[in-house]
Each structure stands twice: as structure tokens, then as C-alpha cells.
Specification:
Blueprint: H1 3-11, H2 22-40, H3 45-92, H4 99-125, H5 150-170, H6 172-175, H7 179-202, E1 232-233, E2 236-237, H8 244-249, H9 257-265
Antiparallel strand pairs: 1-2
Helix pairs in contact: 3-4, 3-5, 3-9, 4-7, 5-7, 5-9
């Protein structure tokens, strides 16, 4: 069998469809083509093609990693835009935040502004144009009134911070290809976790999440806590020693990119 015969076989659509499955066809190609192809290709070209294919695969993996990295950063930027805008608006609302709590949200606001600046710079340095800040509607069409009712402001602040903590965890694998970005993302993640714990305690909730209970939260925020009832980690039942609430609270769950984007999308016009 010469090279032209192999190419002719591969050009036949039926080879990948009616005659066999794609997995089967690749197996068949390995069986009938490997030795024949090496025999038909001029000396030295076989090793060149193998090296070329390997390099192409490596390049494709790099492109995929780069795409995942910038996608994760764009998602994080959207979430940080949301939090930054939320706290700026709340602090600007006259009489909304009690004087004793204002210093907390002033500091959180500074953190979110710094996160936005970092993410925009990181994306630019990677050759990616940072996404523009969306137009937000924090009332969700009138469902909430966070800038005229302080308890509602606290409720959404908790939801946003809990979302951010879970979302950053969910993107860890996508930023792992760049150790500098990964380190910064982990640093932001821990700060977001401190924000979440602080706001939760300001609402007289525990600083952590048990089961799927956000802690005195409206049903509209259920998506923020989806999956938090999980008690199985790497095959181990975390409820074994102390029960489901403690077992669940021992490990925080992730939000996927799609889940985090859907939550943020509720507040984007």
C-alpha cells in the first residue's frame, strides 16, 4: 500500500461514517497505515512528519490554554465590574449605609477597584482587549431596591461576594497555564472570601456556607448556592464524622463559568 492509496482511503467520507465509527477508523488507520505509510514515505520524512504533528498538537494545546486563560480573565473582569459598580453606587447613595458600616464597604470598594485595574492590565499584557463595563441594573427590573433599603443592599452584597468566591475557584484550572496570573487570581480569591465572610456576619449569618443554605437569602439567589449541599469529596463522604451540615461546610464548591456568567447576567441590561 503506497501513500496515494492511504490518502485516497482517508478522503472517502464512508471511511469515517457508514463503514465505521471515527474511533474505529482511527484504530484501523493505526493498523493498516502505520507500517505502510512509513514504507511509502521517503527516508527521514516520516520522522519529520511525526515531529511536525507533535509540534502542531503542542501549538493547538497552547492556543487552547491561552483561550481558556483569557476567557477566565474576561469572566472575572465582568464579575469585578459588577462588584465595583455596586459598591460605588451604594456608597454614593445618601443615608443608605450606616456610619459604623461605611468604613467596611469603603475598603471593600477599594479592593474591587484594584481587582478591575489588575484584570484589565493582565488582559492587555496578554494581547487581549479587556471587555467593556456592562450597564448594570441592580434592581433586576424592580425586583430589588438595594440603594434605598440597607438590608437589601447587604443581601445582594453577600450574593455577589459568595458568587465571586465560587467563580474564582471554578476558573483555577483555566488560569493555571500562567503562574503569575494563577498566583494573583488566588490572592484575589482569598480576599473575596474575606469579603464574603465579613458581609455574611454583618447579616448575622455564619461566615461559611452550610448545605445549599445561603443564610436568610431570598429564593432569587438560589443559583448562587447551587451544589453547595455536596458532601462527597474525591469519593469521601465528608458527613461521616459530624453530619451533613459540617461535612458540606468543610469544602466550598465551585461555580462553572456558565453558572457565574448566568448569575452576573441577571444584573446586566
Amino acid at each position: 500500500m503506497n501513500l496515494l492509496t492511504i490518502l485516497d482511503k482517508l478522503s472517502d467520507d464512508k471511511f469515517f461514517t457508514t463503514e465505521t465509527s471515527r474511533l474505529g477508523s482511527l484504530s484501523q488507520f493505526s493498523d493498516f497505515g502505520k507500517k505502510a505509510a512509513l514504507a511509502a514515505i521517503p527516508l527521514g520524512l516520516g520522522s519529520f512528519m511525526a515531529t511536525s504533528a507533535k509540534a502542531e498538537t503542542t501549538q493547538e494545546m497552547r492556543f487552547a490554554a491561552a483561550s481558556a486563560l483569557t476567557g477566565a480573565l474576561q469572566l472575572a473582569l465582568t464579575l469585578e465590574y459588577l462588584e465595583d459598580e455596586y459598591y460605588r453606587t451604594g456608597l454614593a447613595a445618601s443615608g443608605l449605609i450606616p456610619a459604623g458600616d461605611k468604613v467596611v464597604f469603603q475598603q471593600i470598594s477599594k479592593h474591587e477597584t484594584a481587582h478591575v485595574a489588575f484584570l484589565k492590565t493582565a488582559l492587555t499584557n496578554l494581547g487581549e482587549t479587556p471587555g467593556t463595563k456592562p450597564t448594570f441594573d441592580f434592581t433586576v427590573g424592580g425586583t430589588f431596591q438595594p440603594f434605598s433599603d440597607y438590608q437589601t443592599f447587604l443581601t445582594l452584597a453577600q450574593a455577589f461576594e459568595d458568587t465571586g468566591v465560587r467563580a474564582y475557584k471554578g476558573q483555577a484550572g483555566n488560569v493555571a497555564s500562567n503562574k503569575d496570573v494563577l498566583q494573583a487570581a488566588l490572592q484575589i480569591h482569598s480576599v473575596e472570601a474575606r469579603h464574603a465572610s465579613k458581609v455574611r456576619r454583618m447579616r448575622m449569618n455564619k461566615g461559611w456556607i452550610e448545605l445549599n443554605v445561603g443564610g436568610n437569602m431570598p429564593s432569587q439567589t438560589d443559583a448562587v448556592y447551587a451544589g453547595e449541599e455536596n458532601i462527597t469529596q474525591a469519593g469521601y463522604n465528608t458527613a461521616t464524622l459530624f453530619g451533613a451540615p459540617a461535612g458540606s461546610a468543610s469544602f466550598d464548591e465551585i461555580l462553572t463559568g456558565d453558572q457565574a456568567a448566568a448569575i452576573a447576567g441577571l444584573f446586566i441590561v
